[in-house]
Amino acid sequence: MMSPTDSDRETEQAEHLQGNVREQTKIQLMRALVEKQDPSSKDVDDLTLRRFLRARDLDVEKGSAMFLKYMKWRRTFVPNGFISSSEIPNEIAQNKMFLQGFDKKGQPIGVVLGARHFQNKGGLDEFKRFVVYILDKLCERTTGEKKFVVIGDLKGWGYANTDLRAYLGALSILQDYYPERLGKMFVVHAPYIFMAVWKIVYPFIDKNTRKKIVFVEDAKLKSTLLEEIDESQLPETYGGQLPLVPIQLS
What we know:
9 helices
């Protein structure tokens, strides 16, 4: 005789399996739809289509429209298939983005130092290319359905670093073209003055992304990060063992 726990587990497994079958059916419907409108979609795997489908709550038409918009954008904005460091010299020179280590789920960890960002002569276009360069690098390190983790460090951030157009541009690229890629973002050392900017940006963040952003108190910084990142994979600056590695060298 099965215990209630065994029965609950079997029910849960059955529901999970049923959900997978339903999702897989929708992915096939989505594939037929997008390949008809953009034949190059045949080269895209099911995992990618699933991300766009999930970002639109399994609505095939909305997921397809989002994916087709991405394909059009990618051809225009990244015609070579990748962004090279030579296209983003001013952003690279600020030495503000780092990539090293993996969390306990095997998700790559990026660290961005907000106080090193200033508007530069490359303008918004170069910054957007830099965002794509970062996101592509992070995605290259993921496998299967794994996502990536970002530590947004605002230590020393001040009004001179404020760049709303850049923040909103980065947010738009992440949400519109890299759905279901962000696993979690830890915002650390956030100064009080940053909250004025956060109030402006917050309404533009979709509900799925909002759930993944965590503000961490200074007093609980190391303990919070260690819940999800082993000490051997945590950057030295947060009490771990890994040195920060500039993204262009990763």
